[in-house]
């Protein structure tokens, strides 16, 4: 079982890459994060995120139940509950963590053998276009996300591997290959 961190700015397509891997392979599962942000239309509690109150989130942190956590876009808390690792071990699956850079750094410190992969957009303009086409956020939220995105892109060099999401399927296949390579090497 490997722990695989997929980082990269919001809108880069991490979610679609994860979806492709889950749909086309048998040995991966997605870590379901806890967050204090509200669900977007179509998001299901316990599937996309565990949507929790600020109080519940803070209790999980205080009880050392989080592998990592971060405040994202200035106001919302996101974190990986430790029991996601237990769940993956029990099912003997590779665990995909789709998280941002501050959390990725915490994972690397706590679990040095985690495979750290950064997903780049083809260009910043393309990232902005993708964020806008989602149309679920206000202009102010989009601007906040773009500021965060620039900071995230600056951290790409800290990762074991960098991929560019030019083509969803090709990028997802590369992630799977990197995990298989790492497994063979260990
Ligand atoms: P969104 O609100 O678009 O679902 O996610 C916003 C950002 O939070 C994304 O960059 C996403 O990768 C990140 N994120 C989601 N879950 C976690 C988590 O458990 N921990 C951390 N550190 N970041 C997360």
Mean pLDDT: 94
Structural class based on helices, strands and sheet pairing: alpha/beta
Over the alpha carbons, how many angstroms does the gyration radius reach? 16 Å
**Topology pattern, helix = H, strand = E:** EHEEEHEEHEHEHHEH
Largest sheet, spatial ordering of strands = 2-7-1-8-9
Please estimate the helix content.
Answer: 40-55%
- Give the total of beta strands: 9
Number of helices: 7
Please state roughly what percent of the residues sit in beta strands, choosing from under 5%, 5-15%, 15-25%, 25-35%, 35-45% or over 45%: 15-25%
Distance between the termini: 11 Å
Question: What would your notes on this structure say?
Answer:
The chain has 186 residues and is of the alpha/beta class. 45% of the residues lie in helices and 22% in strands. It has 7 helices and 9 strands; from the N terminus they run E-H-E-E-E-H-E-E-H-E-H-E-H-H-E-H. The strands form 2 sheets. The protein has a 5-stranded parallel β-sheet, with helices on both faces. Strands 4-3-6-5 form a 4-stranded mixed β-sheet. The mean pLDDT is 94. Bound molecules: guanosine-5'-monophosphate. Guanosine-5'-monophosphate is lined by residues 10, 33, 37, 68, 70, 72, 78-80, 98-100, 102-103.
């Amino acid at each position: 079982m490997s722990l695989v961190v997929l980082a990269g700015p919001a809108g880069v397509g991490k979610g679609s890459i994860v979806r492709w891997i889950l749909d086309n392979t048998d040995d991966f599962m997605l870590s379901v994060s806890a967050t204090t942000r509200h669900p977007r239309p179509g998001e299901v509690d316990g599937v996309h995120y565990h949507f929790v109150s600020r109080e519940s989130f803070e209790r999980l942190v205080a009880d050392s139940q989080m592998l990592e956590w971060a405040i994202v876009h200035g106001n919302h808390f996101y974190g990986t509950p430790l029991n996601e690792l237990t769940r993956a071990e029990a099912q003997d699956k590779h665990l995909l963590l789709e998280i941002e850079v501050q959390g990725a750094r915490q994972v690397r410190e706590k679990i040095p053998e985690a495979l750290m992969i950064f997903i780049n957009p083809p260009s910043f303009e393309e990232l902005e276009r993708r964020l806008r086409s989602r149309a679920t956020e206000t202009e102010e939220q989009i601007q906040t996300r773009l500021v965060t995105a620039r900071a995230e892109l600056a951290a790409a060099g800290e990762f074991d591997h960098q991929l560019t999401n030019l083509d969803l399927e090709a990028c997802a296949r590369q992630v799977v290959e990197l995990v298989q390579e790492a497994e063979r090497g260990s």
